[in-house]
């Protein structure tokens, strides 16, 4: 009985940790920053998703001929992005959006079917709100820190690729294999945590993604 009482004391805190609005403050800060940068008279490309996007600080410099907004928010999953489609994407009326999610979904041990279902709902809403928007799904990347889960990541990438194939206006970009050295992930493209990329990692992303700006 005592153990049950202790467990119940922690339930509110556990629920709070997974509260759907846990990114509200960060999203508001992202909006404030991008609202000050955005020129509504120019075609806009949005990069959004989890920390691999958030930490791509020179993405605008990489694509100087485009107006690029970075609305990435660290630790996010597809289900988090779904809550903020207006704030992070639609409000900027982009002609193109690059989405990087799924990395944290797999780490959180979500079912692949649930991950893909959520991504499909996101694509559906975006296309309903803006029929001319091009959507690019960036594959979850390999990393040293999460290499043990590589099988599940590869399965998710195949599913996201098939999703893109069946929907007009949606592309899938594979960054998984370019980040490998034969069958192992490259060791020199990450910062100390083995999860987030350094400049060499973003060089790879740039080379893969630049054709989608042409």
Explain what you see.
Helix content is 46%, strand content 13%. It is of the alpha/beta class and 214 residues long. The protein has a single domain (23-32, 42-213), classed as Rossmann fold (3-Layer(aba) Sandwich). It is built from 10 helices and 7 strands. Helix 8 runs parallel beside helix 9. The protein has a 5-stranded parallel β-sheet with strand order 2-1-3-4-5. A two-stranded antiparallel ribbon has the order 6-7. Residues 1-17 have low confidence and may be disordered. The protein has helices at 2-17, 24-37, 51-54, 59-62, 78-83, 85-88, 103-107, 112-129, 150-166, 199-209, and strands at 44-49, 67-70, 96-100, 134-138, 170-173, 180-181, 184-185.
Task: Summarize the entry for a quick read.
This protein is α/β, with parallel strands linked by helices and 214 residues long. Helices cover 46% and strands 13% of the residues.
* CATH architecture identity: 3-Layer(aba) Sandwich
Rg from Cα? 18 Å
Q: Helix/strand/pairing class, anyone? A: alpha/beta
CATH superfamily: SGNH hydrolase
The CATH topology label is: Rossmann fold
Strand content: 5-15%
Question: What's the total number of strands?
Answer: 7
Q: How many strands, which pairing sense, and closed or not: the largest β-sheet?
A: 5 strands, parallel
Helix-strand sequence? HHEHHEHHEHHEHEEEH
Helix content bin: 40-55%
